[in-house]
Amino acid sequence: MSVSVQTSRRATALGPGLVVLGAVLAVVAFLSITMGSRSIGLGEVLRALGSLDDDGSIGSTVTLEMRVPRTLLGILVGAALGVAGAILQGVTRNPLADAGIMGINSGAAAFVVTAVTVLGLRGVEVYIWFAFAGAIAALVLVYAIASLGREGATPVKLALAGAAIAAGFGSLTTGIVMTNVDALNELRFWQVGSLAGRYAPILIGVAPFLIAGLIASLAFGRSLNGLALGEDVARGLGQRVGLTRAAAFGVVALLAGGATAACGPIIFVGLVVPHIARFLCGPDYRWILPYSMLLSPIVLLLADVLGRVVTAPDELQVGVVLGVVGAPVFVGIVRYGRLSEA
Amino acid sequence: MTTAVLLRTTRRRRTARALLVTAALAGAVATLFVVTMMVGSFRLSAGEVIASVLHLRDEPSVDFVVRGLRLPTALSALTVGLALGASGTIFQQLLRNPLASPDFVGITSGASLAAVFGIVLLQAGGLVVSGLALGGALLAALLMYVLAWRDGVSGYRFILIGIGVAVFFEGMTGYVLTRAQLFEARQAMHWLTGSVGQASGSELRLLSIALAVLLPLAVLLQRQLRALELGDDAARALGTRTELSRAGLLAVAVTLVALAVAVAGPIIFVALVAGPIADRLLGPAGGGVLPAALAGAALLLTADLVAVHLMPTPLPTGVVTGAVGAPYLLWLLATTNRQGAGG
């Protein structure tokens, strides 16, 4: 009785919270379109947005061809990384799990470097597909190795296999890069972890995967709740644990693979935002997933805007802003907030 | 057979296995230690190396190669590996998380920021960079402990604070690197990869002394570690002074990792993987600090051999630790399928 009352009270507060976050996201997206290292009048931006037609002026070109795609990409990539992080932390039952530790980033980087050195390919439009393939290959390997043995893919084995795959691919990448200057040069551009310079073609390339992954992810709330209680309880509740884990990894491959391919490794969002979502809504993954989905793009876009404005006309990479500004905020939340054990 | 007898035989078998595995690991480490000093452009026999290291014979040319050139590198691979392995497993058990090695919870990143700051902005090198790295690691650990303290330190909060601290330091490091001149940036990148070949005598001596004191201490504190792993309440019921033992163990682990990073730079993966490898070899008797330390040393010595002698051009050790350690851990994960041993 009291439990159901508590849940419903929580739901009545958390539902409107989602609406508020949606509104905040809209405001941040508007900021991201109107503010930048080149100052363009608000009227000019709005005119360009209204006509949706590039009339050749600098203002309308910058707005339509750079800021709008960049903002859309920021929203999609942010949401994808946040949700992927939340799912990975749920499946491995480990607060340290994210795209970096599970080998996704290093798998993607290793494939990019291989494409450059072995196949002699160039250009960001080509890399994203290699990065995507690398991310998926890493996840498949992690899952396959962790599922060998009688008890299947337990959280500990998943986490360790992920860390091992990450280190293995990392060694491969560093080894190639240290002996091949071309590869280093190309990898640098992909690896900065930034929204800059990633415009319409990339957005159109990865958007279908990200959107499909985001929609699919919302179905996982209940099963992640079951897994959080432990494998035996989840099985007792009638869940097919192995199937859930495999499906969750499939969704993560779409989300984190696509996002990492498009923007390079961005660590903070996937690792930290799910924890912030957990602070806001407790241990229920049916709320953590949508909250991560909205909070992550807010955090990512804010950091991106800040990076564009603070040192204009230079830009500060998103990763730097997230670390220097976002991390202290996160530490404050952990220090002074209520702690709900994962 | 009564339960008491059964219990006794199981326990005896477990102790026997622990002893056997530890002895085998120690043998492997000793062999690797000698082999690293045998190979190279000037090949030596095992006897010559051992005689020279132990000062049994005087042959100026052999002594120059062994004691002057190869011993410092081999010694630094050995000590750094021992330190990383021991501190990694203490962290993992203390925080009850197989991923919670000092690489991921902020200590190494504190050292990296301080060292990169020194290299890029102060144009420092050698001892100054080592000192900065040591200070950065200790400062990061202190910061995390203070921030995570609220009527004691819980493992989960410590990990979250560690993530935050790590991300902050990494962001700052990235910023310093983007602002650096190309030459200093390359130097900083090289330091960040980590290499056992860059150690100087004085840092190495400090690490060796620290190991001689702290490794036995860690083995002594091991019983507390087991108790703490059962949870704070159970540990208290078993008579452990939880906060004191935890602080003591953390201090040991932090000092070891800080000194190791100061000597060789942030070599990834050794601290993370040494504990799990040792545990899988030990089976149900897992968790020992000494086997984990030996596994770390064996891994780093092998990595050094591969990096310097098997590659077309000699690479920093940090590049190959992943390539050497990852397949082995994956193989162990795939083959250890007994319940309780596979994790």
From TrEMBL, chain A:
Concerning SUPFAM superfamilies, the annotation shows:
ABC transporter involved in vitamin B12 uptake, BtuC
Q: Transmembrane stretches, by residue range?
A: 12-33, 71-88, 100-121, 127-146, 158-179, 199-221, 242-268, 288-306, 318-337
Q: Give the membrane topology.
A: Multi-pass membrane protein
Record GO biological process: siderophore-iron import into cell
The UniProt entry, under InterPro entries, shows: ABC_BtuC-like, ABC_transptr_permease_BtuC
Swiss-Prot/TrEMBL keywords: Cell membrane, Membrane, Transmembrane, Transmembrane helix, Transport
- Name the family: Belongs to the binding-protein-dependent transport system permease family. FecCD subfamily.
Could you tell me what this protein is called?
Iron ABC transporter permease
Automatic annotation (TrEMBL), chain B:
Keywords, A to Z, come to: Cell membrane, Membrane, Transmembrane, Transmembrane helix, Transport
Location of this chain's protein in the cell? Cell membrane
Q: Which GO terms describe its molecular function?
A: transmembrane transporter activity
What's the chief localization of this chain? membrane
For this record, the Gene Ontology CC terms, alphabetical, are: plasma membrane
Example GO biological process: siderophore-iron import into cell
PANTHER family, A to Z: FERRIC ENTEROBACTIN TRANSPORT SYSTEM PERMEASE PROTEIN, FERRIC ENTEROBACTIN TRANSPORT SYSTEM PERMEASE PROTEIN FEPG
Q: What is this protein called?
A: Iron chelate uptake ABC transporter family permease subunit
Q: Which organism is it from?
A: Actinoplanes aureus
